[in-house]
Amino acid sequence: MGSANRIHPTSDHEVTPIDSHCPDRVAILTEEIDRLRKEMTDTFLQEHSFVSDSVMALSRRLDLKINEYMKQVQLSREEVR
């Protein structure tokens, strides 16, 4: 699975690098997105606010991860062509 290529986000700007040669990349990103969604939901339930700093930070990280996922899906489609 190439765990050496994985970087776990610890800040708003850190994202996992895209490696189009990794066949499990979309699955890994899907798991990361699901984890971030859960973390954001749990944080919202604790904070009772959509606009708290912690919820907003998780939302930004989730947005970055979803963008990364979409790029990877596009790369995968282009490799098939």
Relative strand content: under 5%
Shape: elongated
Quickly count the domains: 1
Intertermini distance: 24 Å
Largest sheet: none
- What are the secondary-structure elements, in order, as H or E? HH
Question: How many helix segments?
Answer: 2
Which class best fits the helix and strand makeup? mainly alpha
- Work out the helicity level: 55-70%
Q: What Rg is obtained from the alpha carbons, in whole angstroms?
A: 14 Å
The count of DSSP E runs of length 2 or more, i.e. the number of strands, is: 0
Which spans of ≥5 residues are poorly predicted at pLDDT below 50? 1-15
Q: Report mean pLDDT, rounded to a whole number.
A: 80
Protein name: Spo0E family sporulation regulatory protein-aspartic acid phosphatase
InterPro entries: HLH_DNA-bd_sf, Spo0E-like, Spo0E-like_sf
Organism: Cohnella suwonensis
Pfam families: SpoOE-like
